[in-house]
Records
---
Amino acid sequence: MARIEFLGPIGKEPVEVDIKNLKELKEIFAQDEKLKEWLGICAVALNDTLVKSLDVAVKPSDKISLLPPVCGG
Amino acid sequence: MARIEFLGPIGKEPVEVDIKNLKELKEIFAQDEKLKEWLGICAVALNDTLVKSLDVAVKPSDKISLLPPVCGG
Amino acid sequence: MLELHDGPLHVEEIINRWYIDIRYKNFGAFIPFIGIVRDEKGIDGLSFDIYEPILEAWFEAWQKKAEQEGAMLLMAHSKGDVPNHTSSYISAVLSPQRKVGLRLINDFVEDFKASAPIWKYDLIDGERVYAKNRSMPLSGAGLLST
Amino acid sequence: MLELHDGPLHVEEIINRWYIDIRYKNFGAFIPFIGIVRDEKGIDGLSFDIYEPILEAWFEAWQKKAEQEGAMLLMAHSKGDVPNHTSSYISAVLSPQRKVGLRLINDFVEDFKASAPIWKYDLIDGERVYAKNRSMPLSGAGLLST
């Protein structure tokens, strides 16, 4: 099961999901009403590297992070 | 007599000259062999304001400064 | 070097330590940028969450870029609460000449604002309120939206 | 504020004093530029002459420009001899927001190099050698040449 972390202000506990790629994650999340406001503004990292495409394979040991808009300093 | 100061590396003592404008100063300086190397690269201030024209009247109480190329910091 | 501190940064301690560390390294320009929390909009301060793995990778990539120009970067940032009139962020460029340094401090701070995985909250009446309006989506944001 | 010091600048003292002075003035960005004398070309240090009346007028004009953007400038410079690995020049911008500050520190330092009436000498074997090749003619130079 890949582990999904919701960073910063999303304020949601990590979940584990059984997916083969990010497209499947998108389908699962589409049913989550509470996540809707975040999905449009969050970037996605796979094992701490930002990804730009849904055609990314996901292994059971992978960590996926959702990163909302940032404002350091 | 206007007072002429030679700033920074010129290393020349101030002089007093009897002139009515900067054109007259230019004529006096043209005869000074030691100043030749400086005149082409020096800016000129009248009473601590840089001037750009020789058509500037000079009063006996005035101070004229020659400023060689700068490098602060 | 990247350092994270709990709460406000001790500006004097950090700047003095950095200066002592680098003064014999023959850099000609040392340019710190010090961010201070402003008292505005009725806040008592700011608070920060940081995702350290991506912050460290981002910083290391910048450090390599700086090294290619003979320069070096230093950065300190707060985690947690930072009251008004204290500092939450210091970055610094060291460079042989001024021009590279002045360009790098600008580009580094601007990219920090756009790319560093840090989340800011206003502290209002003891609550943490996400500073959503001042925040910028990271590159690739929206990938999972339908 | 413009301050001139005999010999090298005490970086920690100056930066700490400036920070303490300004931290409650609600500026969001404090950006010092610290110039450090590099050990290069066999010099033992640098030495400086300053023409204070024109330096002060130049600084005051910049201070007015900064104030129009809600910002403030600070500057310290050495007179006389400054050994390698010590500081001869510090300037700083204080501004409400970072963008104005980053622009001003760049423009202020660049104009300082072009316009401040300060003459630099290399210290070589106890002699002061005018750094003519690194110096820039002031605006209007050559007025009295034939």
---
Amino acid sequence: GGSSETVTQETTAPVTEETAAPVAECITPTPVKLQLQWFTQAQFAGYYAAQDQGFYADQCLDVTILEGGVDIAPHVVLANGEADFAISWVSKALAGREGGANIVNIAQIFQRSGTLQVSFKDKNITTPADFKGKTIGNWGWGNEFEIFAALTKAGLDPAKDVTLVQQQFDMAGLLAGDIDAAEAMTYNEYAQVLEAVNPATGALYTPADFNVISYEAEGVGMLQDAIWADGARLSDPAYVDIATKFVAASIQGWAFCRDNTSACRDIVVAKGSKLGASHQLWQINEINKLIWPAASGAGMIDAAAWDRTVALSLEAKNLEGGTVLTKAPDAEAHTNDIVTAALALLAGMGVDTNGAAYAPETVTLLEGGN
Amino acid sequence: MTLVGRIAYRTSMFVLAIAAIIGAWELYKLIGPQGGGKFFGVSILPRANNNAMPHVWDMFSRFGRPEVRGSDRKIWVVVLSGAWFSLRLSFVGFLLGSTVGVGLAVLMTRFRIVQRGLLPYLVMSQTVPLIALAPLVVSWGGKLEIGSFVWPRWLSASILGMFLAFFPIAVGTLRGLASAPSAAMELMESYAASWKQTLFKLRFPAAVPFMVPAFKLAASGAVVGVVVAEISTGLKGGIGRLIIEYAREATGDPAKVFTAVFGAAALGLTMSGIVAVSDLLLMRNRPKETTT
Amino acid sequence: MRAETRIQRIMPPLIFGVAFLLLWEALVKGFNLKPYFLAAPSKIIEQFFKNASRIWEASAVSGTNALVGLIVGTVLGIAMSFVLSRFRFLGELITPLAISLNAIPIFVLVAVLNNMYSITSEIPRRFMVTLVVYFIVLVNVAKGLTQVRSTHIELMHSYAASEFSIMRKVRVPNAVPYLFTALKVAAPASVITAFVSEYFGGLQNGLGSRITNNIATSKNAAAWAYVFGACLLGLVFYTLSIILESVTRKGDKK
Amino acid sequence: MSAVQVVGTSKIFNEGSAKQVDAIVEVNLTVESGEFVSLIGPSGCGKSTLLRLIANLLEPTQGVVSVNGKTAAQARLDQDYGMAFQQAGLFDWRTVGKNIELPLELKGWDKTKRAKRAEEMLHLVKLPEFAEMYPWQLSGGMQQRIAIARALAAHPPLLLMDEPFGALDEMTREYMQGELLRICAETSTTVVFVTHSIPEAVYLSNRVVVMSPRPGRIVEIIDVNLGAKRTEDTRAAEGFFRSITAVREALRGTHADHVAATAIRGVEDR
Amino acid sequence: MSAVQVVGTSKIFNEGSAKQVDAIVEVNLTVESGEFVSLIGPSGCGKSTLLRLIANLLEPTQGVVSVNGKTAAQARLDQDYGMAFQQAGLFDWRTVGKNIELPLELKGWDKTKRAKRAEEMLHLVKLPEFAEMYPWQLSGGMQQRIAIARALAAHPPLLLMDEPFGALDEMTREYMQGELLRICAETSTTVVFVTHSIPEAVYLSNRVVVMSPRPGRIVEIIDVNLGAKRTEDTRAAEGFFRSITAVREALRGTHADHVAATAIRGVEDR
Ligand SMILES: Nc1ncnc2c1ncn2[C@@H]1O[C@H](COP(=O)(O)OP(=O)(O)OP(=O)(O)O)[C@@H](O)[C@H]1O
Ligand SMILES: Nc1ncnc2c1ncn2[C@@H]1O[C@H](COP(=O)(O)OP(=O)(O)OP(=O)(O)O)[C@@H](O)[C@H]1O
Ligand SMILES: [Mg+2]
Ligand SMILES: [Mg+2]
């Protein structure tokens, strides 16, 4: 309890009596709504864990987690005031900011991009340059910018040099051979491929069957899951205080998931994730790889990665010849102030927010992700 | 035929039809090309492989297995409760859509200028993708608080159901209201019946044959709207949500998504069933066709 | 009835449309709505003209899908309603199936069909439009074919007219207004189905994928410009059905 | 005040088109309050059209129609008349009883009063047991009687009747004629009555208006002097035959192609 | 071979329900080939029902109906008869000419032949200039004449006519009666004819069938001995009046509630 007091006092904003009250004296927790960008799955395990393990409650927060949908733009929900915080990919959220949504990145949870382009070995697609003349799958809905960035970088015109196909919710298009190279997240769709039966062998597909291009490795990785806050309310110290506690508890949740993968899996499954347990375990493991190790502390926005993301958003041409952003975002689009305060808070609680010793596990996938 | 007899007959016909479909499906799996058939580079024949077309028994047995490993909730329970959830939303959407549709039709019948002015835009409204509207409806809903009434999240889904339901009703009712025989219109005129009286005593009864198919379309429209809304607004608990969640697993568990699809079909069937019964009730005293 | 002049026919929708757009514009300006939320019509129109050629190309793709589906669906729907009114047995067999098929949301079926055909094929989309149109036509025309005056049927029976003749001379003329009611509903439905089928997969060349693409990047004005294109497409189809109706309904009362 | 006044009235359908039909031309007719006037004339001569003009269901192409000293339109709005059409025009979706109640509903009568009147009317037309049946379950003559009951139900001051007894057998027709006269006398109703039966016209009317074939004009108006009270004996009265002959002659005169037909015969011949 | 044979036939509507109506009961009737038989009886007595049974548009609840020695169903399929309904039943979406052509189309006649016959028929009913109009633009009587033209167009060997002349004025009616008799004589057509006019029944028929009120039974069959050829003079013949009186008496006998009415009168009274 005491540590939290000291941290809040360290924040730049003036402190009111109420927010300064020690957590132990929490009487009515502050209600907080968090908007996710997709369905319940281990991608959001840290938040669920924080909820489940009482980390939010420890901060005197009563967090409601709102699931996403295909058509839910978290930044819109946030800007409309229907949520207090939202999880969104950086480029998409910045586009929203350009469209007038006053939202601010306050914690960059995923330090790396988890996007892959997966193809069967016999297609011989090993670099983005090999995309030329091929049928390239993508998720659409703003989750395909890295592909455009890669194409642009390889000197290809998305409108002419490749046939772009929007993938369905599954990887069937790749397996059926309709799509030469499919977009896949390390933590989700790539696993789905490996959970499918290879009709030729009767056993599951193995990584050896595929070529995998990692956009992170290709240098066109863009920042993904981040916690966004309502820019208009950031001048309100009470909100800043809540934000700090929220980020802190969330990172604490992620740290929990780093150290307790199977407990975390169970939490997510219990929350109603539809993909099965083995899949969720894989997912947590892969997500952990995107977060940990975090050299400057989990949630810190790395300037280089930020600038790269912005630059790619300004350069990469999409199907219509447009770019994600038309002008560089202003400096207010992100801040490390809150996460810095949160990390200090966590440090006081003895939570490891760097994960320097983190080592991924090996997860065995089962057929159908069950 | 007695009512019970008729229902029994209808049911057996339906079972027969299902059996025929199952037969055709499995037969195609036997003889159809695994990789699909192409003519002049265009795929014409669907693929008969197990990923694209799972065996019927796989789909049905999937109903009996748990939704996810380790869960003791069987899929049929999940699908059924999802369908029930969506049914209620659809029904609300259907009712709202009926009100709006009939209301618009009446307005357009009453004022020709409204019909001229509005009808093209009603048509256009139907081409506005729900996907463009869903975020608006959801966020407007979120802002609405009238007195003690707080806009529930599910109502947004019903509103989208209404959006698809009202149009066929408006068009069908409009046509129906204009279909009153001119002799009957003359009679009402001779009574100096007010417009409203003519509407209720003549136009509406005369419109019933046109309204019934409209309501049938609206019933399935409401279902589609609600399911789409569930998917796009992230509303949990309904069949639409299940469909998309299961669809993501189609790679490894192709039979699973079909269970939810069947759930949606059953949902639509129930809605149309409600309309069909009201059709029977409304038309029971009309002259029947001679069948000699 | 007195024939209306062209001006009288065109003015109300025009005034209505302009008023609607002005109100919308005023709403956006008045409440200072941000573009990510709702774009102003002036911005949308600006985008519409800026992207005119792309909108045209995308409309051509979706429009073709819609048109193919509209035609095939109408033909099939009419054919099936004939079969149904002729063979009660088949009708009772097929109607519930048609209803349940129609109740399955479009894109879900597209997802299933995309797997059955190929995700790079336009067939599932056209198939989808066909299915939707088919159902609308079927439900209406089937009603029109059966809701005939019993005196007329009696008369035809007295001529020992074959079912076919009764169909041609009594049922079909009676079903014509029902068919056009169906077409009025089906015309916009075919358009929306064509591009809703694009939402969740397949080639990214039509209106649907353009709309999602732009919404995803919060370029709402551009997205609505494509929506506007879709509306125009629907209106074209609708107008065609109206013209067709007025051509076939010369001798009718009123 | 005259109940109906038709002045210089013409009605032309499809004016100016190839299918132009001059239904009635330059018709002048005055019907006094309480009077019973019949219209008679060849098929298609414009009787129904004239009735519709009086009822303000059609607008005259030319001329003025007034009812009860008001414009025809106002009279219609004031529900000054009841009308029985040539085609029964019952609503298929209403029971027989509810069909009769329709004009009463429109006048805002309450339920029990309506039901009572409907029952009275059903007794009047001798179909009391059919209240719950639907029109299409009735014979042609029965439907026509229901339509008459409907027209009479509200006891309107002016009755416009278009061949109301056309589908009735002789006995029912006579009975209905008697009832109609009785009701009209009791409530001093004015009636404009279209019929093809000369004896019926004469039996019922104070005056018989004879019209010429298309385009319809009034060729003669024949006064029937049979006294106010008509009984079964009237049908045997001398004046009755004289009037029948007068009407027949006026009618025959209108039929150019029938000049060869026997001029006057002592017996009605249909 | 008799043209029509109705043996022990009953028709009960809504059997077993509360709304059961016994339309006709135990009817026996034979119509010889070439014969002209009229059905007469009070409104709702089952005349139309009987005609529909002969036309096989209704199935008898009991009994057998045969036409031309075949079952009624077979006769219908062989298009052995033409029918004119009580309601004109014209198709609103067809012109008058096309309405008349309808049965000919169904018989597969070619276009020119059809058009020619339709024109003849329009002349027969004196409406040649209305070929291109639509039914709702015609007066009631004109519509009825079109329906008659339609029934006669194919020259069927058996004609079933349900009050075909009900909406016609006296002169047109007489003219149509004459034409009907001429056509039937020329083509030796058998006719079963429903009417409410006693003189009409007598003038046209070889036999008049008198039916009782609901439930309809045949109470009497009256032979009319006026010779094969009827002319205008027939209407003045002594036998004509005698038959009229006989029919009227038979009819009055069926109306229990009309016993007080004058029994026989020298003049037709409608
Ligand atoms: N479809 C039906 N359902 C029930 N009852 C019916 C039906 N058709 C006729 N009836 C009844 O059968 C009886 C005889 O009817 P029908 O039409 O044969 O009389 P009709 O002799 O032709 O009378 P009218 O001279 O008035 O035409 C009537 O009481 C009528 O109510
Ligand atoms: N809506 C219309 N359009 C065109 N012509 C019409 C219309 N209504 C009536 N007519 C024409 O007007 C004329 C008079 O018709 P109306 O119905 O008044 O005749 P009627 O005297 O009542 O004849 P009937 O005794 O046969 O009923 C007819 O020639 C008819 O064709
Ligand atoms: Mg008339
Ligand atoms: Mg009858």
---
Amino acid sequence: MSAITIYFPPVCLDDLAEIRRLIESAVVCLWEPGEVVTELVIAINEAVTNVLVHGYQGQPGHMVVKVSRDNAALRVCLQDQAWPFNPTAVPTPDITLPLAQRQPGGMGVHLMRQFTHRLQYRALPEGGNELVLVRQIEG
Amino acid sequence: MSAITIYFPPVCLDDLAEIRRLIESAVVCLWEPGEVVTELVIAINEAVTNVLVHGYQGQPGHMVVKVSRDNAALRVCLQDQAWPFNPTAVPTPDITLPLAQRQPGGMGVHLMRQFTHRLQYRALPEGGNELVLVRQIEG
Amino acid sequence: MMNVTIEQVESGVPVTIIKLVGQLDASSYLDVIETGKKLHREGTRDLLIDMSEMTFMASSGLVALHNIALLMRGEQPQDPEAGWAAMHAINRDVQNSSSFEAHCKLLNPTPAVRKTLDVTGFANLFEIYDGRDEAIASFG
Amino acid sequence: MMNVTIEQVESGVPVTIIKLVGQLDASSYLDVIETGKKLHREGTRDLLIDMSEMTFMASSGLVALHNIALLMRGEQPQDPEAGWAAMHAINRDVQNSSSFEAHCKLLNPTPAVRKTLDVTGFANLFEIYDGRDEAIASFG
Ligand SMILES: Nc1ncnc2c1ncn2[C@@H]1O[C@H](COP(=O)(O)OP(=O)(O)O)[C@@H](O)[C@H]1O
Ligand SMILES: Nc1ncnc2c1ncn2[C@@H]1O[C@H](COP(=O)(O)OP(=O)(O)O)[C@@H](O)[C@H]1O
């Protein structure tokens, strides 16, 4: 299999574990379970969580997830209908600060970057956002 | 969650286990694991297998699966682009025959009927088939 | 994906135990039939199929059972003695009002597989055992 | 879904072991923080977080760790003695060049969780133990 698209009904934070499991199942149709999949799922989970928490702000909202594979990479494309926000513009946090000087949070986009090789963002012409997470699997 | 739609790329028999697992993951987003899900997945697997084996005859073909839930039932809608065939018209096999007098096979539609409460078929206006498997979960 | 392990035991007659691990569906049932044929060629005449770790079985799995059961009661042209035994077995089967397969039995199916055997009538054709020792002792 | 089990042990000081079982994500991290607060109210000042059966941890899990660690070194207005001990602890932390949390430590994260701790710098803030006894003995 090369590409699977999943249309979700309006979802919210209560659905997070199930969304994650379903997307993981789709990824595992394209690539064997292991470190690559585990880390990619962590990255995807951060992206989905941000859409649910910051994008839809707790209101149920639609989501479309397309996972695909070419020889060299897994691609996970996440589309939402929330207000435009470009996560690739979020600055890198300082991970050397001691705990007392850190703000809690702010590690989501950082984890996406750490556990993928590329993030591609575009505002959709019809409204909403598209974020593509690319994880190399070979070469 | 109430409804999830999965678009598969062209698939064949080699993909069967992964198709089954992904559909099961979707069903489990709508209803807790257990006997209902296990039996429904057996029924779905028979429907998918027939599309791949008899419908597409081993050639890769597209499939769309929509799983949904209302209060009383789980519905799994399976669409293909194969030649029209109505599985609800397949006669009930005689399951009391001794082995030597049985033809091997012919139990797929029977299992679908046994493990669901209703099968609904229609030929799609644009070509292809739609089979809906309905499994009651309450009442 | 189906993994198969094979074991030989004695219980009056030699019994082969074949353990099917994984999912038995339309993508794997032909391999299981091939294993059955190979065992038969190598002399297996009494077969216990251990289903305890078979996590999924489709209707194609029933085709495999059907096929292997016929093999186990069939003629064996390469060995006259075994051939006679097989004929005898067929006679026994015909005379046996219960119509259970005498030479192919099932061990420990999961509840879902058990229900599949039930609703297709296969539970009336194959003896199904919970205990391995009891299953082995039932042959011969 | 996160299940939490709590255990008290002694090692010079009383140490609470909290075992997080399941998936720690944005839908469950507030519950974990609540558990931390409750333990703190009930007197816990040294906490070992057993991650051996935490099958998933998101960045929200780091927020929970952060929050609970601050709690464990913070002031306890309801108890002057503990308050002093806490102040003392803060002094120790400031003096400690390694900057590891002295009162909140981690046990046995899975490789993926361990990597999440690494790439976010949390592995430089929390001592991470493989052995439970060793972890307990490190307090006090
Ligand atoms: N989809 C989104 N819509 C709106 N704002 C977002 C979105 N994703 C992230 N943000 C903003 O970017 C910040 C950093 O995100 P992140 O690194 O994931 O950390 P966290 O979500 O824990 O704050 C968030 O606090 C939020 O303000
Ligand atoms: N999607 C399909 N397209 C064409 N023919 C089909 C399809 N599904 C079932 N059939 C026909 O109906 C018969 C009975 O199907 P089934 O009960 O599933 O048993 P089996 O597939 O094991 O033969 C099949 O043998 C086949 O001839």
---
Amino acid sequence: MTSEPAMPDPEQLRLAEALIFASATPVTARALTQALPDGAEAEAVLAALQARYAGRGVELVEVAGGWQFRTAPDIAERLKRVVKVPRRLPRAAMETLAIIAYHQPVTRAEVEEIRGATLSQTTLDALLDAGLIMPKGRRETPGRPTMWGTTPAFLAQFGLADLRDLPRREDLLVETPTPTVEAPATLPEPEAPDA
Amino acid sequence: MTSEPAMPDPEQLRLAEALIFASATPVTARALTQALPDGAEAEAVLAALQARYAGRGVELVEVAGGWQFRTAPDIAERLKRVVKVPRRLPRAAMETLAIIAYHQPVTRAEVEEIRGATLSQTTLDALLDAGLIMPKGRRETPGRPTMWGTTPAFLAQFGLADLRDLPRREDLLVETPTPTVEAPATLPEPEAPDA
Amino acid sequence: MAAVAANDAPLGAEALLLHLDGFDGPLDLLLDLARAQKVDLARISILALVDQYLAVIEGARRIRLELAADWLVMAAWLTWLKSRLLLPLGLTAADEGEAAAEVLAARLRDLQAMRAAAAWLGARPQLGQEVFARGAPEDFAETDRSGLSLDMPALMRAYMAALRRGTRHKQYRPARISLWGVKDALARLAVLLGSLPDWSALDQFLPETLGGPLERRAALASTLIASLEMARSGTIRMRQEAAFGPILVRGQLSEAQDEPDDE
């Protein structure tokens, strides 16, 4: 045995390469030794293999006590792609949004009246955070409750040019229930964001 | 552009190498083209990459409509000693698979007719579990029997780029192969464009 | 797999049975017998094949009578085929035999081809058997769940659901149908007639606030009945100039001025 690292047998290199490639977990030097023919030096084989892959798209790295092929970090960065998985709004939020869209400007109490359910702060916050609704002044009644309306972002999200593009309420409801809160007789006036 | 294949940019080679290496399934030339910078020639990059890996422990092969790195077939025996390998398909399953591959879409009754034997549930289940076959609609005859065909996983498992890679039926009959003798495992030779 | 190359040597009865069990049915056995003829499948002798098959089945039956039905069905069919094949050429029955023999040969070639295909597939290095893909694939995809998935149909469904629930929660009160009854009409006529000294059309005594046509007709009918009632008791007088003409009423107070023109 010489002290300088001898170039390992190419067949050993091939076997190590295939084994590490096919393994689902990092391959320990010990496991590699068992796979290699007797007398082979796993360390030398690994070093040679690492040198062979140096600077390539895939590199041999030591992780978690074993060896594994990993994409070179700079390439991994370039291959990274963002997959957008849009969330759906919870049902309560969607219903609240729809009511605000059709009845704006509308107070929280009115939304609750129409939905027949209380409107939680979480739901309101979710719509505010999503930029879909905004305050539209206060109603001049006792308590001066905040009125809510939709934002231009709401229109953009639904691909509407204008609030008037919402389907008419009459076209939606076969039997028109009569909500106690007065809905605008016609359609809500379009917002003029830059008026 | 010269007619002789120019050596692709090393960075493109790194990127392609990493992309195909990382993927769990074969990478199509189209997907590669999208990942490469504009103007890069996927075919040339693939050819260069294949040449680089020729004779190594891991090889680049064209399967199931894409490209995939796989361990070299000749080290199968040595790898099997350390890598856990599932059971091979029994003869009845292999024959059924061959019949489905060649006659698809084909009904169970037709498979039975060709084999002159009933097709057991075990066999059908084994092929389905392995993801090698799938239903391909129903035949518009009385009873509307399900028709079967092979999956992309079938191509991947047997290292076929395409169903057209199956030998022609006429060629199968020319020299009578002896089914009981295991033929030596041979992969299609990697093309070495500048060998 | 005990099937191959067992046909050249004469078989003992026991071996024969084992042998049969090794086949996947009669066609499988026939193909094996045909292959034993060591000629191209296109040129096998169907007649010789039939004889060999029948000999095997006969041998097997001697020791096991309950041989599976499909072996016997095939034997019966082959016996029929043999009888046709032995007929002199030119007879219709002989032609039938030739055609049937050709079908059988084609089926054997078919099965043979599929056998070969299975062998070809089996000889290929299989993924997960001889060759292996990357054991630890990497995924560079990062999911971004910050976006919202909103669409009009969902908004509409939500709106309708909200309205339905909203109305369901309210107490149901059937709309009050208030029809002008005879009692009401009697009271109204009694009050009004005093202030109307002259003949007046009956519909002038209808209440001012009437909903729809239904309410109007109901009020008119009630008022007519009320006025007839009052006329009968002599409180008022009524008259009608022409059929379907306006019905006129007036109070009895001014009876001095007028002729009685009942009805």
